[in-house]
Amino acid sequence: MVSRRPILVLLVSSDQAIQQTVELTLRPHRLPLVVAATTERARAILRQASPDLLIADLDDSFEALRPHLAPTTAVLALTSASGQTTDSSTSLTVSKPFDGDLLMTAIQRLRDGD
Fold first, then answer.
1. Exposure class string for 58-93: b at 16+ Cβ within 10 A, else e
2. 51-91 tens-digit pLDDT
3. Residue 2 lies in a domain
4. CA neighbor of 50 nearest in space, from 22, 71, 26
5. Which structural domain, as residue segments, surrounds residue 19?
6. Is residue 101 part of a domain?
7. Confidence of residue 28 (pLDDT cuts 50, 70, 90)
8. Which residues have CB under 8 Å from 96's CB, separation 6+?
9. H or E element that contains 100
């Protein structure tokens, strides 16, 4: 089995339930997580770090953050609207509410380049 380097995940959400679900899902996989409750905080983080994965709400923060992302940053967009999609090959959408298994499946797909 090939060992992969840990990826840095930036979660942008003010929803504590989403923050908790993502944290509890990533912890056993030892994936480092940085949480930004606001778009402004996320921009500040992006000025200092380049996450491998951005998990953000497609409804508001995603579009505001897109210009600040490195080209290699994969995006997992959270949406409350079914059928809503993103327009990038490095992006996936997950409908809210979601569980940890669905979240990890989406993260694996992004890591594997599917």
1. beebbeebeebbeeebbbbbbbeeeeeebeeebbbb
2. 999 998 776 667 788 888 988 899 898 887 654 445 454 58
3. no
4. 71
5. 9-112
6. yes
7. very high
8. 18, 78, 79, 80
9. helix 100-112
SS3 81: coil
In the chain, the DSSP E strands lie at 9-12, 33-36, 53-57, 74-79, 91-95
For the chain, helix (H) and strand (E) counts, in that order, are 4, 5
Q: Tell me, yes or no, if the pTM score tops 0.85.
A: no
Q: What is the per-residue pLDDT across 10-23, written as a single tens digit (0 to 9) for each?
A: 999 999 999 999 99
Buried b (16+ CB within 10 A) or exposed e, 5-14: eebbbbbbbe
* 3-state SS class at 8: coil
Domain count, the chain: 1
CA angle 24/51/79 to nearest 5° reads: 60
